[in-house]
């Protein structure tokens, strides 16, 4: 498989959940160390977010990393070096984002990592950590989220954006209106 074929397959990969894999934290730690080693003066922190960061939770087998930067201008300045270090992105997709920048890594036609560059300790940073921590702290909440994700993956298997949007109401319900401002 060529690099272009792998990217094309990864971009159009179906939404498929798998059982929790205890190797996920180690994969996060390895990528976190690689990023902090490469960009020690720019990244203000790298956190494991998303379902792979919640022990026991089924997930798409993609490690979500959230890297803090001082500003979106700093995030934009990191894009070219991140592309040189194995990430890919969509300029069109990022142009539509007002609060973050997004990149992914892939191998053999499968997404392996998503990297979200956000303002360190900004609203999005705090929201994503609060949601992750709520799921980690409450097994019943995590189970309700797992059931919702399974339903949405069945409803939107070929539309990752619809799948992600459909989870938004649940996330906002967990965070509440006073969260993270």
Automatic annotation (TrEMBL):
Pfam families: GrpB (PF04229). It comes from the Bacteria. SUPFAM superfamilies: Nucleotidyltransferase (SSF81301). InterPro entries: GrpB/CoaE, NT_sf. Signal peptide: none annotated. This is GrpB family protein. It comes from Halomonas salifodinae.
């Amino acid at each position: 498989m060529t690099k272009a074929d792998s990217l094309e397959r990864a971009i159009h990969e179906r939404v498929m959940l798998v059982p929790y894999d205890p190797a996920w934290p180690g994969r996060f730690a390895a990528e976190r160390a690689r990023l902090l080693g490469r960009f020690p003066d720019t990244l203000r922190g790298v956190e494991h977010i998303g379902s792979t960061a919640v022990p026991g939770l089924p997930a798409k087998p993609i490690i979500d990393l959230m890297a803090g930067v001082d500003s979106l201008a700093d995030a934009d300045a990191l894009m070219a070096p991140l592309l040189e270090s194995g990430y890919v992105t969509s300029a069109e997709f990022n142009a539509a984002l007002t609060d973050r920048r997004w990149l992914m890594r892939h191998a053999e036609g499968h997404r392996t990592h998503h990297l979200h560059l956000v303002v360190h300790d900004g609203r999005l940073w705090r929201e994503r950590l609060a949601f992750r921590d709520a799921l980690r702290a409450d097994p019943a909440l995590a189970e309700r989220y797992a059931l919702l994700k399974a339903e949405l993956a069945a409803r939107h298997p070929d539309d990752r954006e619809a799948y992600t949007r459909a989870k938004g109401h649940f996330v906002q319900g967990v965070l509440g209106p006073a969260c993270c401002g």
